[in-house]
Write a structure and sequence with these properties.
single chain; about 375 residues; alpha/beta; TIM Barrel; 8-stranded parallel sheet; 17 helices; 12 strands; globular
Length: about 375
């Protein structure tokens, strides 16, 4: 494996996956303005290095939600990633555990909560999407608790499923639409088909147990899309907090007001997130709103951040703007699609090495003790 960065893994993933699957992982919603903003605003930040520092000894270790992290990155939940590689979530969960970083299972995963728990020796995090049936939500929470999950990550920004134009063109709609173009393209990816026939699951395994007619992915996908809960409010969050006995995270925060309300409603942490540009198109970049949010609540609850981690330098950028830790989805998903478990291992190794490089080049000994002003806006020419 000769990948020297995450983009190399992305290119391999693009070659190996059918177009519909690749564009699902890589794409965003509508015009993809939010995706572009996330990257552009990260790239506008600059480093103010301290070059008179001995960096022969470096520390990247921290904790995230009380769980140890070898470096401040968690594998973010990625829905249906098991379509890129058979049993993909299980490979990613093992890779995260081996690397010593947290793993969050998507609420719309191919592998179930119980599948992941069976291959882990340490706790993981579970994502919660709210459904209209409160008994379903209650059961999902109870299953996460029974699986030993150390944190519940309640995602706020999927009141409805956004329109992802590439998915619509490719037939990844609800219900799924099989087109002649899809069939022809998939037949051009016979190695992917050969791998996928070995998969243990072929549907959203966690959600399948909650749907009485979940005999196939088509009926389940239609049920999920029709039953997303658009009524999330403070009462909903308060109800989830009362159900869950461990660390509680609210994901999808973009304003100081929402951050403060999440804190007041009992959240142990928030994730400053715009869903990777896959929901509200035209939202601000997460790195642009992170500093104000971190200043407002960062002394009381953990402020986690996602929004396009593709290098270890991005981790330093976010930490320097106030994040306690980061989440990344596409980076590990590209690795998985490219090479399975080995690809996730490689993605994590690349990110950690780049983090170490950035720390050395900026005069940083400890990732939890960044010098004030280390990450700044680029000065005008």
């Amino acid at each position: 494996m000769d990948a020297v960065n995450i983009d190399d893994l992305r290119k391999v993933a693009k070659r190996r996956l059918p177009k519909a699957v690749y564009e699902y992982v890589a794409g965003g919603s509508y015009r993809e303005l939010t995706v572009a903003r996330n990257r552009a605003d990260l790239d506008r930040l600059a480093f103010a290095p301290n070059n008179m520092v001995d960096v022969r000894q470096q520390n990247t270790a921290t904790t995230m939600l009380g769980d140890p992290a070898a470096f401040p990155l968690a594998l973010a939940p990625v829905g249906m990633v098991g379509l890129t590689w058979p049993d993909g979530e299980l490979h990613a969960a093992r890779a995260a555990e081996a690397a010593g970083v947290p793993f969050c299972l998507s609420g719309f995963s191919i592998a179930s909560i119980e599948d992941v728990a069976a291959v882990r020796k340490t706790p993981f995090w579970s994502q919660l999407y709210m459904m209209q049936q409160m008994e379903v939500n209650e059961h999902l929470i109870a299953r996460a608790a029974a699986a030993g999950c150390s944190a519940l990550v309640m995602t706020l920004d999927v009141h409805v499923h956004s329109q992802r134009w590439a998915d619509n063109r490719n037939g990844l709609t609800s219900p799924i639409r099989v087109t002649p173009g899809n069939v022809i393209d998939m037949m051009g990816h016979l190695p992917w088909i050969a791998r996928m026939v070995t998969s243990k699951r072929w549907t959203f395994a966690t959600m399948a147990k909650e749907h009485p007619q979940a005999s196939n992915v088509l009926s389940l996908a239609a049920w999920v899309n029709a039953n997303l809960f658009a009524g999330i409010d403070e009462g909903t969050i308060r109800w989830v907090r009362a159900q869950w006995p461990r660390k509680f995270v609210v994901k999808g925060i973009l304003t100081v007001d929402d951050a403060k309300r999440a804190r007041d409603l009992g959240a142990d942490a928030i994730v400053v997130s715009n869903h990777g540009g896959r929901q509200l198109d035209g939202a601000p970049s997460t790195i642009s709103v992170l500093p104000e949010i971190a200043r407002s609540v960062g002394g009381e609850i953990e402020v986690l951040w996602d929004g396009g981690v593709l290098t270890g330098f991005d981790i330093v950028r976010a930490m320097g703007r106030g994040a306690h830790g980061c989440l990344s989805g596409r980076a590990w998903a590209y690795g998985l699609a490219a090479h399975g478990r080995k690809g996730v291992d490689r993605a994590l190794a690349l990110l950690r090495q780049e983090l170490l490089d950035c720390m050395a080049l900026t005069g940083t000994q400890d990732i939890t003790k960044l010098a004030p002003g280390l990450v700044t806006t680029e000065p005008p020419l």
